[in-house]
Amino acid sequence: MITLQDFKDLKCIIENKIKESNHVFITFHNCVDIDAIASAIGLSYILKKLGKEPYIILNDNFDNIEKGAKKIVDAEIKNYNIISSDIFEKVKTSNDLLIVVDANKEKQVCCKDYLNNFKDIIIIDHHKEEEDTIKTKYKY
């Protein structure tokens, strides 16, 4: 059972990691759906309030995006830094934070080839962990 203290600890860890990082990237599973994009946008909103300008990595062909998620992306692309992996590769530094929402497995995320390049990775997900879950001590 998750306690209020767990949420306070999570908040503190995330705030510290955000402050320590050059950039904050957010990603989710491929074939993005509404809960993935909504989680990323909600988290981006919070990060902006904390003074960071986050990047949401979206590497799906628009044909693979769930219809409802595509509407959200179309409506919010001008309000948030929604980028492809090509742009991600140009912006990425060695002191960046990756936050993965709505996924936890390496094969599910579009930036799987770069996971070892991140100083820290935070996973916020509701799916079961398995042997191919991204290796990080920050899993919620």
Task: Describe what you observe in this structure.
This protein has 140 residues and is α/β, with parallel strands linked by helices. It is 36% helix and 16% strand. The chain has a 6-stranded parallel beta sheet. α3 links the parallel β2 and β3 (81-83). The two termini are 12 Å apart.
Low-confidence spans: none
Class of secondary structure makeup: alpha/beta
Beta-strand proportion? 15-25%
Major sheet description? 6 strands, parallel
Widest β-sheet, arrangement of strands:
3-2-1-4-5-6
Q: So what's the overall shape? A: globular
Binned, the helix content reads 25-40%
Please tell me the overall pLDDT.
89
Write down how many β-strands occur, each being a DSSP E stretch of 2 or more residues. 6
Radius of gyration: 14 Å
Tally of individual helices: 4
Tell me the series of helices and strands, N- to C-terminal: HEHEHEHEEE
N-C termini distance: 12 Å
In short:
The chain has 140 residues and is an alpha/beta fold. It is 36% helix and 16% strand. A 6-stranded parallel β-sheet has the order 3-2-1-4-5-6.
Which helices and strands occur, and which strands form pairs?
Blueprint: H1 4-20, E1 24-27, H2 34-49, E2 55-57, H3 67-76, E3 81-83, H4 85-91, E4 97-101, E5 120-124, E6 138-139
Parallel strand pairs: 1-2, 1-4, 2-3, 4-5, 5-6
Helix pairs in contact: 2-3
